[in-house]
Amino acid sequence: AEPGPGPGSPIGRVGGGLEGSPGGSRRVFSPASEFREFSRRQLRDMERLFRQYDAGKDGFIDLMELKLMMEKLGAPQTHLGLKNMIKEVDEDLDSKLSFREFLLIFRKAAAGELQEDSGLHALARLSEIDVSTEGVKGAKNFFEAKVQAIHESSRFEEEIKAEQEEKKKQAEELKQRKAAFKELQSTFKQ
């Protein structure tokens, strides 16, 4: 079930951020749990892109920031085109994009729900973020949902392990470079 619209607030980091609702209650927005069709890497890439164009660093992409973004991506839009792009995913009707609404663009792109001539389609295509989805979608019953949850968590564990292995490898390479440098230094000191 899609959560109801509510005014967004700054995102902080992937996994952080708050989305409010008109009644004043607030809930934590967790991209990884709400946008399960995307991998951690895809979500990080999307957050990096969002932060890159959030010039005001307020956790939103407004009309002028979106205008600049589309120009940099090589697909400039008219003022009306930009307004229509925001309107298509602006759940809380605040005329700017929260990080959650920004992710909706890529969800719609992955599901083939964006018209080819739309600004959002151009944004998703030109951003060079691969939105091909992985894993089981639309589980029909409890058993399938459980299998999907196991699959999702094991995929995230695999990604975390791969990230840790990469960090270990980088640390080891750094250690070897330092040792080689010290060895080189000692030959000069003699």
UniProtKB/TrEMBL annotation:
Domain named EF-hand: residues: 41-76, 77-112
SMART domains named among the record's database cross-references: EFh
Gene3D superfamilies reported in the protein's UniProt record: EF-hand
UniProt keywords, alphabetically: Calcium, Coiled coil, Metal-binding, Repeat
Keyword NADP appears in the UniProt entry: no
GO molecular function: calcium ion binding
Annotated coiled-coil segments of the chain: 146-184
Record's compositionally biased regions (Gly residues): 13-23
PANTHER family: EF-HAND DOMAIN-CONTAINING PROTEIN D, EF-HAND DOMAIN-CONTAINING PROTEIN D2
Protein name in UniProt: EFHD2 protein
Encoding gene, per UniProt annotation: Efhd2
